[in-house]
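Task: sequence design from structure.
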């Protein structure tokens, strides 16, 4: 099953597959954390719109008051003018209060969603992360989390205010004037909304294709930069640029179609609004001539229409952006709904390690039903002992640490630590009990101190020095201009393979867990350094229960027990001398490696 497609909701799928209402409901818990602020902000919003609608009403009164009447002295309507200014000020005050109060709600929601996405990504299985496309998922998450702010902004600051203002204007028109004004207004709004929705839905296909191509181009560019050295090795700069440019060319075509169709939409919206306002003004002017409305009424109706259609003119943009935002948000919420492949049982307890005895009991494992990796693997790592697993490439050796860490679940049999099935305990407690020196060490783009201290954030500088000394890397660190504060670069690329592996060894020493795994721990070291560190590893392993995954047999001759694997099965077990005496696969491998080293 392709979890990448599941996680991102198949971004290439048409928008009809999205669940806009579901996503809006999913947003509510993030917004309602500050329920009081939300209510206060909405109250300010309504008061601001009441003040806004009150402006044309006061303006009507001012115009009527300034109309000269026979045998009447014209007086300055000072009270109305002050009321006009006060309403203008109140509109600004309540709008700013709304923004200030709601700011905490908006940005807290963004923080909560972003944190929850990262937490969920960390909880997803190794299978998901091996199949993901980092560039595409990073771009999708970036768009999705920013869509939270955009959605809140449009809902609270655009759509709800338009609805409130429209309701107030409709009430005044129906109460004070003939129904024709309300009929024309409602008809214009209805035609405008239907036209906007229909054209926007048609245009959404262009946006979805743009999103897909944007994510694809982002993934291609990041992938080519991550593999910078490989690109250089094969002189493939032009191949990468050609592939990137071809994707952007398709994106360009979709962007042009999106823009030209938007021009059609904008013109249609302007035409509908223009016709509606003209018809309303015609009826208003006719009633003024017929003495059924005052000049002030004409001014008020005109002001209402301009005031109403001005934000309504933005409805098309708001609706389009809202649809785009919901499309972007859908990616994030589908990712959040991706089920965790490895989950703690509801009654899972913490792992209790007393002796750190490990037992693989008839373990079977398959990445997919068609690809079984392990077949009835059984062996024991006694407490405080060192057991090495050896075998040809593809024998299934490196799958064992992944199963022990519960990156995957066994498909048959079980793995026990001190008699406890690791599926019955919490993952956090299990992983606290295990330290690993992986074959491929990847470091954070931070300082050497940060990467070393990652094994134990509470470690003192003296602890770091001791671990670095044991891993034979302290002299190297202290010889650097920035010492412990040296930045290691993306994925540790500023360090050699051997230096990275020594950092990994020191990190495992600092963690000091009861169980240690060495997965080809010296594979990137030169012979001299390997011999120096091998003694250290033996000293460290002697204080822990240790599982060593090895390719070079010379590194495990002193192990308490050696397990030989072939094609996913355990074929031999014993000490180095016992296995040589059996004259089986282990002896063949030993003689082959001796021959390679002698040449």
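Answer:
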């Amino acid at each position: 099953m392709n979890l990448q497609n599941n996680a991102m909701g198949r971004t290439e799928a048409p928008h009809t597959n999205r669940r806009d209402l579901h996503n809006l409901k999913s947003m509510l818990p993030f917004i309602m954390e500050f329920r009081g602020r939300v209510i206060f902000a909405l109250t300010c919003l309504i008061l601001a719109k009441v003040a806004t609608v009150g402006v044309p009403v006061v303006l009507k009164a001012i115009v009527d008051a300034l109309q000269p009447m026979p045998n009447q002295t014209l007086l300055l309507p000072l009270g109305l003018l002050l009321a006009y200014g006060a309403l203008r000020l109140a509109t600004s005050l309540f709008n700013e209060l709304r923004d200030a109060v709601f700011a905490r709600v908006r940005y807290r929601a963004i923080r909560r969603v972003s944190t929850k996405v990262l937490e969920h990504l960390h909880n997803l299985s190794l299978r998901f992360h091996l199949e993901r496309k980092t560039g595409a998922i990073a771009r999708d998450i970036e768009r999705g989390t920013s869509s939270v702010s955009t959605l809140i902004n449009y809902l609270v600051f655009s759509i709800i205010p338009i609805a409130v203002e429209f309701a107030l204007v409709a009430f005044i028109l129906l109460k004070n004037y003939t129904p024709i004004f309300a009929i024309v207004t409602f008809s214009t709004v209805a035609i405008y909304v239907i036209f906007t929705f229909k054209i926007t839905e048609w245009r959404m296909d262009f946006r979805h294709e743009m999103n897909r191509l944007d994510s694809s181009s982002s993934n291609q560019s990041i992938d080519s930069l991550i593999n910078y050295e490989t690109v250089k090795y094969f002189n493939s700069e032009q191949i990468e640029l050609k592939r990137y440019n071809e994707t952007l060319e398709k994106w360009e075509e979709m962007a042009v179609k999106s823009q030209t169709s938007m021009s059609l939409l904008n013109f249609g919206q302007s035409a509908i609004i223009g016709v509606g306002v003209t018809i309303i003004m015609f009826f208003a002017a006719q009633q003024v001539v017929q003495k059924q409305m005052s000049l002030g009424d004409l001014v008020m109706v005109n002001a209402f229409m301009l005031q109403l259609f001005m934000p309504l003119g933005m409805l098309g943009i708001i609706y389009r952006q809202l649809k785009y935002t919901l499309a972007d948000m859908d990616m994030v919420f589908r990712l959040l709904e991706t089920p965790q492949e490895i989950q703690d049982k509801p009654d899972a307890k913490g792992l209790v390690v007393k002796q750190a005895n490990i037992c693989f009991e008839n373990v079977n494992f398959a990445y997919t039903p068609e690809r079984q990796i392990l077949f009835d693997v059984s062996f024991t790592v006694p407490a405080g002992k060192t057991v090495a697993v050896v075998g040809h490439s593809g024998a299934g050796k490196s799958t064992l640490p992944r199963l022990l860490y519960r990156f995957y679940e066994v498909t048959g049999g079980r793995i026990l630590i001190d008699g406890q099935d690791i599926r019955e305990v919490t993952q956090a407690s299990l992983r606290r009990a295990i330290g690993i020196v992986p074959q491929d060490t990847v470091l954070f783009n931070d300082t050497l101190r940060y990467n070393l201290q990652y094994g134990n954030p509470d470690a003192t500088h003296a602890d770091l020095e001791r671990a670095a000394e044991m891993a034979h890397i302290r002299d190297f660190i202290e010889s650097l201009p920035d010492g412990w504060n040296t930045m290691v670069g993306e994925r540790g690329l500023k360090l050699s393979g051997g230096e990275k592996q020594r950092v990994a060894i020191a990190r495992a020493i600092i963690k000091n867990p009861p169980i240690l795994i060495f997965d080809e721990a010296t594979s990137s070291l030169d012979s001299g350094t390997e011999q120096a560190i091998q003694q250290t590893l033996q000293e460290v392993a002697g204080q822990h229960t240790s599982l060593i995954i090895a390719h070079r047999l010379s590194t495990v001759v002193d192990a308490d027990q050696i397990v030989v694997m072939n094609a996913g099965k355990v074929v031999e077990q014993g000490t180095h001398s016992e296995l040589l005496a059996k004259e089986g696969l282990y002896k063949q491998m030993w003689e082959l490696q001796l021959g390679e080293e002698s040449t």
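The domain at 3-336 is CATH 1.20.1560.10 (ABC transporter transmembrane region fold).
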